[in-house]
Amino acid sequence: MEPTRTREQQHGLADLSSFAHELVEELEVDSWPGAESYREHVNVIDTLACEKDQLVVVGCGNAGKSSFCNQLLGEKLWPVTKCCLGLPLCEACYGSERFFSAGASNTEEFSFYAIEGIASAPEVASDMAGTSSTTEGEGLAPQQQEQEEGPEPLWHVQLPSPLLEPGIVLVDTPGFDGKVECRKAIENYLFSAPRLSEVVVVYLIDANRGISWPDRDFFQLLLQPGCGQVALQMILLLNKCDGRSTCNDEEEDQRMECPRILAEIESELSKYSITQVLPLSLKEARQGVPEALQELAVIEAKIDGALAALKSERIKLGKGQLADLIRKIGDTLEAEHDKHRQLLRVARRLDEATCNRPSWTEMRPEGRSSSGGPAQAAG
Question: What domains does the chain contain, in order, with CATH numbers?
């Protein structure tokens, strides 16, 4: 995915930061009294330019979340299985080289297929698979079932990707219908206060199952105070609208059902301020089916627009900070100019008052220099 609009907005934020730095350096503001107050505005602009936006992919197990993340990245980064994975939240951000770190451990050179416990995709070691209320899995290994409670596990990956380059963090999540710990990890990550204005949620629903109670539970969270912004920025997808590239009667029937399922879901979700559900077939997009590729292009454009809107809001805040900085500098320079004019008026009055009197040099006592210090002895 090439996030054109998002990249343009990121460049706009970088330009604001550069201009603010050039302004204070050109005027040597750091040497002014109270220089810290001017630097505060520059620091805020820098923070706005460096903040990252989260693109969080959520849904029940086997809805196609990891496949969708891989599609956006243009490579098979996260494992894909037919069962619900007991994996942690997985963050991917931009880096010129590939690195991987788990939790708070030290970052080390990243190679996905070398991650301990995971076999080559799409196969996954059985001890990484878990069960969910809507998918069949191999079950959790005993050591996982007895795992002590602690901070939510989080994998961090850095890699060179056009999607991630404009300060985007792509987050793949475990199934929302999985273990209570997985659901809590998603809620804590997504709905923590600092993130609400920095996140775009892509929620996937499996067309084979339609909307489920775990889906409804997630949408119910959007009705909580302070979560309305997440609902406004959410993009809802109905995945597995397949049947255009096959002669299989069952898949063709499924395709015919997609419009009805879309209408039913949109009707039910209107109470959550969700007005549109977009059809998607990742399977047929990978096969190059034109209609599926067109649907995917629409979705990618919508994601690009949502991410660009987040950065546009920060540009607005940055411009406000820059305007305040320029105004403060202008007020200071104007005050200095007024002070200079006052000094000139005083100097003129002194000159007029002393025009018929001996000059200071004439009145200077012997042995005193013109500066008021001791006179230097002649060599």
Answer: 48-141+149-317 (3.40.50.300)
For 67, phi then psi, to 5°, come to -60, -40
- Type of residue numbered 309: A
The C-alpha atoms of residue 123 and residue 108 are separated, in whole angstroms, by 24
Beta bridge pairs of residue 54: 169, 199
Measured CA to CA, the distance from residue 349 to residue 327 in angstroms comes to 33
Residue 156 CA: distances (Å) to CA of 165, 171, 376 = 15, 9, 71
CB count in 10 Å sphere of residue 334: 10
CB atoms within 10 A of CB 317: 15
CA angle at 71 for the pair 87 and 67, rounded to the nearest 5°: 35
Q: What is the pLDDT along the chain (379 residues), one digit of tens a residue?
A: 888 999 999 999 999 999 999 999 998 989 888 889 999 999 999 999 999 999 999 999 989 999 999 999 998 887 766 555 556 788 999 999 888 877 543 344 444 443 333 333 333 333 333 444 443 333 223 233 333 444 456 788 899 999 999 999 999 998 998 888 888 888 888 877 566 677 899 999 998 888 899 999 998 888 777 776 777 788 999 999 887 655 555 656 666 677 888 888 888 888 777 778 999 999 999 999 999 999 999 999 999 999 999 999 999 999 999 999 999 998 888 888 877 777 787 777 777 766 655 554 554 555 545 444 444 544 4
Overall pTM > 0.90: no
Residue 52 near residue 198, CB atoms below 8 Å: yes
**Helices 180-191 and 213-221, axial angle in degrees (round to 10):** 30
Give the span between the Cα atoms of 108 and 159, in whole angstroms.
Answer: 12
Distance (Å) of CA 64 to CA 61, 80, 207, 360: 8, 8, 11, 90
d(CA 232, CA 222): 9
Q: What is the dihedral of CA 113, 119, 125, 131, to 10 degrees?
A: 60
